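Supplementary Text 2. Reproducibility record for the structural model of the 670-residue chain.

All settings were left at their defaults, and a single model was retained for analysis rather than an ensemble. We include the record here because the model underlies the residue-level annotations in Supplementary Table 4.
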Amino acid sequence: MSLSSGIQFKLPRIPKTNTLKNVSSDGALARELNHRPVPQFPPLTIQQILKLIENGSEDLITPIEWLGVFQQDIIFDGDEQGIRAATLVWQAIGKNERLGRLALFVAALHLDGRQEKFPTFLLRSLDIVLPLISGVAAQRTRWLIALRDKHFVKIAALAYECDVVPAQLSHFLKLPNSSRYRNSIVLGALDVLEQYDDEKASLWFVRCLKESTTPETIELINGVLKRRLPIHQPLKDWLEKTCLPSATNTLWFEVSADVRDALKALFKLSAFYAFQNVMDMMCAHENKRYLNITDDEISRLRSRVRFWSNYSEMVGKLRLIIPRKSALHTLMNSNQTSLDFVISNDKEQDEAVLFELKDHIVFLVLRGNCSEIRLFENISRNSNRFFGNNAALSVSGVRQLACSAIHDHVKLWQYFCEKMLRVQFNITPNPNIQEFSGLRPGLGHYDFRNGLPKPPLKLISERERYLEDWYNAFNTREKRLGNTSNSVSHLTELYKIRKVSGNKKGFRTVLAKAVLNGDSEASYLYSLDLVSDPDEPRNRKKMAESLIKQLAHRGYPLAVKLCEKINLKPNYENVDLKSLVTKDLEEPSFRKNKQRLITLDKIKDDSIKQKLRPNTDRPFVGLYINEFEKLFSEYELNSSELKMVQKELSRRTQNARVKKLSDEVSNKLK
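Retained model, structure tokens:
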């Protein structure tokens, strides 16, 4: 009992007598132990051990005594004594598998630097022993010889023979892992891949990649592509799933720049893939607020990127233009993207991209009001200006340059843009494209001769309605920038729409109006249409040809190419444009067939009739401007109806077409 606390403890137990049993000296256990040698004390010397082996009594040497031999560096007076000792020791080892495993295991520890000493005479004589042994023992010996000589490629080759990866060979041979030389052994797989150059070696190399650490994997990938080693399908498939920019947990940004270039060549990649990754990052839900981007902008941006992905294999140099106020450049830096970009101090706050596409450079505004596509010739001047060391590059600056073509982003823009690229600039999509990415089912089937299928007339009519607002906003901005040469003609695009929709009645008329306005593209298209029309008289065709030569003289790219193709000499011939287009501006058929109206119910055009509200204060509220024009030109409205048309037009945005029609209605009322 403790006097201080009053707590009572149990008394300590006193050990009882041990329970060891006496064993009979002639029993089974005694007989089993009797034949086993007991280590000598003091331990046997090397000379005593060699003597026992010579006498055939190596069984008397205990494992502890053998371990003592293997853990010291024994030196002999002469080479003959060393050779004699090595012969005797290997002779004993050859008779005892366990002893052999012990000797080779300790030797491996020594070669890896984890054991200070090992008999030098045994290491030197490994080559002599190798021809005398076979099986796993021979494989272990080959491992030790290669490790001793630091021939790591031989270790990798042995791993290939054993059908294991180099890093796992020591485990397969039941030898200690060579952590000291692991990296060199793993990289030896590159030489094996080069030596065998077949699909079997490629499959084995993929296993090496999968079982390597990330730094080792990157070194192996760098080695394969820098040394231009053979890449058979298994390895190519693995590289595609692991190293391309679009791969999950990709190593694209870990490998060197030279290797990325090699991957681009191997998989026919372009800078467009890196651009796609940046756009995916830009459209990611978690970055919406950071980039101040709306859901509608994300939808349009994805649509635009998908369209240009159909041309990805032809994309060369690529550069993003990012406004300083945009957070995109910060996001790109934090994600270590390899895409080239410049930060612009421009007033324009919309991101844009420039990229080479065959013989042209595409300028694509990614978002914003009345965004557009521009094409420039891919000449050295433009290439240096856009992709060289130009810190002043900006969206406004690019917009102020003369270009070959401008295209909108209005409904169905993909159909008309593809046609423009194919017909005017001889730019077709990636080979083997069958379905155009970014288009709804039924509109994306692609034919390299005819392009995309013609969209439904309803969609074409919708495009015609939306285009006017885009062109008005676009041309307003161009005038603000001082760009008079780049103003786009709404009439030219209207001509293309009407031609596609089959409205032959009016497509040449709107083109003729654009010719009088001085639009180069309209003049070229109009002349081309006249020259190719078999019903046109010779004198009009001659005037059209002169207009083409005049356009070529002024440097209009399509006219220049056509003159070169058909051997026309560009010159500034005076062409009477008014005389050339007068025939197409006359509309006798409309004037002759006008119908006198008493009520709105007598209008026969179903598309207009369905939208009229005859018993309301605003019967024409549902009509678009093109339908107003048709109503005014094809029907004879009474004065009250004309006044209602005039009142309705006064409520509309006062663009050029609305003002023109209002003036015509006012004149009619007079």
